[in-house]
Amino acid sequence: MQKSDFFTAQRMDPEDLDSVEYLRQGAEIKVVVHLQCAYFEARLLAGETVYADTFNDREPYDALTHIFCVPQDALPIGGTMRFAALDSAVNGDLCVAQLSCTPQFADPDALFAAYNSGIEPMQTVSERIASGLRYSHLQCMDRENRPVQVFLLEADPHSVRFYTGTPDDGYAARGCCATVPEMIETACAHGQNVLAAVNADFFDMFGDNSPSGLCVKNGRVVANGESVRPFFGVLADGTPVITSLGERPELRDQLDHAAAGLQWILRDGAPYQWGPLEPFAYVRHPRTAAGLRADGTVLLMVVDGRIPDYSNGATLVDLIVLMQRFGAVQAINLDGGGSSILYTRTSDGYRLRTNPADLYRPTEKLIRPCFDCILITACE
């Protein structure tokens, strides 16, 4: 989409526009355009610059919200902007709407409170999977008395180990994917004594299945060695860490295993990167997260969702609040939605503890292939 397209496209139906919201973030302003109908490949003309949509290029299931990050000095306060988008994902016509730029800025604290669903545990069932590893199922209710199912692994890094599960227990960075039970099976076949597992990084499920961030296995960088996304990993001495190579590049050669997440949601005990005004943050979905307590205890959490009578999922704020409840001081958001899954070992094999729910077929328990997972293994 070129700048000249803004002046040759057809005008968007005014009824298709819902609202425009604004949020100050550092030297930029987040401009969020909400639509009544789905449009694609959106752009914003503010002043003399065309800005690309920073959201829908990674979230295929929300074409109604478009987010642009505009420098404050480039936003024509009191003037107008032009919004342009294609009216279909393939061979669509370009449509343009003029937006009045008279922002009422959102309050991040109020948004954080609004995104908190008030999830409270009503009943907890826990069991010891192995020395240093406890599994808990929390049956919760939100403030509207809707059920939410939360699953938690608490792992002592002195008693168990952490291992990056990959397809065929191998090192292929692209073109491969496998389900978590398949990754458990191949890791066990190669001598790992797997106790539990959760899914890990976001991956290109509509392309070559490559992971979005860093992946390290047995000290070897499998993918994205230059990624600055946050990750959960363990050093060669078994110390668990949640950090990024952007902040600690010296760890690249010290990591034994690592799997990345999309954002660092809890940092030094405080909420972080929780995406105010972004549907990815405030729409309730199945979620998976990895966290650390101050004493090094690892927390792996899955929240089921998309099945209203059983579990209604979590916002990113809900995930932060739950992680804080269990003592995490650092936490990252891992792949969620239909990828969220948790297994534990039982006396007769491995048990699926969660109820995976694909967006379009939520009532079918589909086990989605993915690129990597986090395996908890027994110390030998």
Instruction: Please state the average pLDDT score.
Output: 93
Question: Span between N and C termini?
Answer: 57 Å
Low-confidence stretches: none
Give me the Rg, rounded.
22 Å
Biggest sheet strand line-up: 9-10-11-22-21-23-19-20
Number of domains: 2
Mass-distribution shape: globular
Considering DSSP H and I runs of 4 or more, what fraction of the residues is helical? under 10%
Please count the helical segments.
4
Sheet with most strands: 8 strands, antiparallel
Derived structural class: mainly beta
- How many strands in all? 26
Q: What percentage of amino acids are in beta strands?
A: 35-45%
Helix/strand order: EEEEEEEEHEEEEHEEEEEEEEHEEHEEEE
Summary tags:
380 residues; mainly beta; Immunoglobulin-like; 2 domains; 4 helices; 8% helix
Descriptive notes:
This protein is mainly beta and 380 residues long. It folds into two domains: 3-106, Sandwich (Immunoglobulin-like), CATH 2.60.40; 113-378, no CATH class. It contains four helices and 26 strands. An eight-stranded antiparallel sheet has the order 9-10-11-22-21-23-19-20, covered by helices on one side. A five-stranded mixed sheet has the order 1-8-7-4-5, with no helix packed on it. The protein is globular and about 65 Å long. The termini are far apart. The model has no long low-confidence stretch (mean pLDDT 93).
